[in-house]
Amino acid sequence: MPDAEFWTAVLKTFGPDPRGRRLIVRFSGHKEYEQFCLALRKTDPDLRASSAIRTLPLIRSVALSSGNAETWAELPGVADVEEDDLVGVRAFPAAPTAVPWGVGRIRAPEAWRYSTGDFVKVGVIDTGVDASHPDLRGRIGLGVNLLNENMPPYDDNGHGTHIAGTIAAGGRPGGMAGVAPGAVVCPVKAFDQAGNAFVSDIVRGVEWCVRNGVDVINMSFGTNRRNRSLHAAVRFAVRAGVVVVCSAGNGGRRLKTDYPARYRETISVGAVDAAGRIARFSNRGADVDLYAPGKNIRSTWPGGLYYRLSGCSMATSHVSGVVALMLGCDRRLTPKLVKRLLLASAQPTAGASGRKSVDALRAVRLAMRGR
């Protein structure tokens, strides 16, 4: 039977999970459990805190964020290992004063009976977010300001707050509802007040998202220049299980899309207007995967205000919200499967043969079936 010294060495070897994923480890018997607890009492308090270890004597188990399930399962004295699933109380959001036309068009309100994207983390790499906006209170999670790491990721431009509202505004009475009002936006400020960012800051933003357990990354930006570092960052995120949703760009080009949306690992999004037709400003090259509302979109704005913007940026945030709804049904969906289900559930785009537009209700129903 492994003793306390054995478990002390295990805890020091594993260290905390960088994405914050939690496991429940159940021991073979009471003696094995007690030996682990004895080791735990002798362990460095900082290590205990970083691994967020909780003892569960009722079931001779511990919950922790350290190591991985496969490794724990192979250790002597361990009977079972499983994910420490997140469970929440559920209620449909009350009918808000305003459901923006885009949120309604993609049938997000009809999908809320199945999922509101509860606890799904959406990283928004952008200009920051005004977390004090009434419609975003309680919807903003951990974030980072890559331009000044001593400051919070406050939005001094407006673009990021607008994106965040479309994704996850809470639907309070008198406010507006986003596509996934149960999701959590993690603001990553990589763009300055003028709306510009170095690729290196975007790459750092992607890394931060992966290290902090983000489920979806919204990239409402683009460039017409291929960049190997940016592509490597996208591949890194997708390999880590993060869905990456990107703007196709606003150049009105019929044959090309922007980067990083042109990379096959991403979900590339163009824009449609209120009539369901591709907006004149939207790029529409063969690399565009699907379309979403992007013209005259009303959403949150810094200072508790609302503002209307147009662009593929706005379309991208609609699709990121739909992905959050899907993952709210099944966290096991991989980026590749999410993309396949989105395309399989999309509806024909008006006046554009072969082009499809996102349908939140159909996407969520497919996600519930897992195929």
UniProtKB/TrEMBL annotation:
<keyword id="KW-0378">Hydrolase</keyword>
<dbReference type="InterPro" id="IPR000209">
    <property type="entry name" value="Peptidase_S8/S53_dom"/>
</dbReference>
<feature type="active site" description="Charge relay system">
    <location>
        <position position="313"/>
    </location>
</feature>
<dbReference type="InterPro" id="IPR036852">
    <property type="entry name" value="Peptidase_S8/S53_dom_sf"/>
</dbReference>
<feature type="domain" description="Peptidase S8/S53">
    <location>
        <begin position="119"/>
        <end position="349"/>
    </location>
</feature>
<dbReference type="InterPro" id="IPR023827">
    <property type="entry name" value="Peptidase_S8_Asp-AS"/>
</dbReference>
<dbReference type="GO" id="GO:0006508">
    <property type="term" value="P:proteolysis"/>
</dbReference>
<keyword id="KW-0645">Protease</keyword>
<dbReference type="Pfam" id="PF00082">
    <property type="entry name" value="Peptidase_S8"/>
</dbReference>
<dbReference type="GO" id="GO:0046872">
    <property type="term" value="F:metal ion binding"/>
</dbReference>
<dbReference type="InterPro" id="IPR050131">
    <property type="entry name" value="Peptidase_S8_subtilisin-like"/>
</dbReference>
<keyword id="KW-0720">Serine protease</keyword>
<comment type="similarity">
    <text>Belongs to the peptidase S8 family.</text>
</comment>
<dbReference type="GO" id="GO:0004252">
    <property type="term" value="F:serine-type endopeptidase activity"/>
</dbReference>
<dbReference type="InterPro" id="IPR022398">
    <property type="entry name" value="Peptidase_S8_His-AS"/>
</dbReference>
<protein>
    <recommendedName>
        <fullName>Peptidase S8/S53 domain-containing protein</fullName>
    </recommendedName>
</protein>
<keyword id="KW-0479">Metal-binding</keyword>
<feature type="active site" description="Charge relay system">
    <location>
        <position position="159"/>
    </location>
</feature>
<dbReference type="InterPro" id="IPR015500">
    <property type="entry name" value="Peptidase_S8_subtilisin-rel"/>
</dbReference>
<dbReference type="InterPro" id="IPR034202">
    <property type="entry name" value="Subtilisin_Carlsberg-like"/>
</dbReference>
<feature type="active site" description="Charge relay system">
    <location>
        <position position="126"/>
    </location>
</feature>
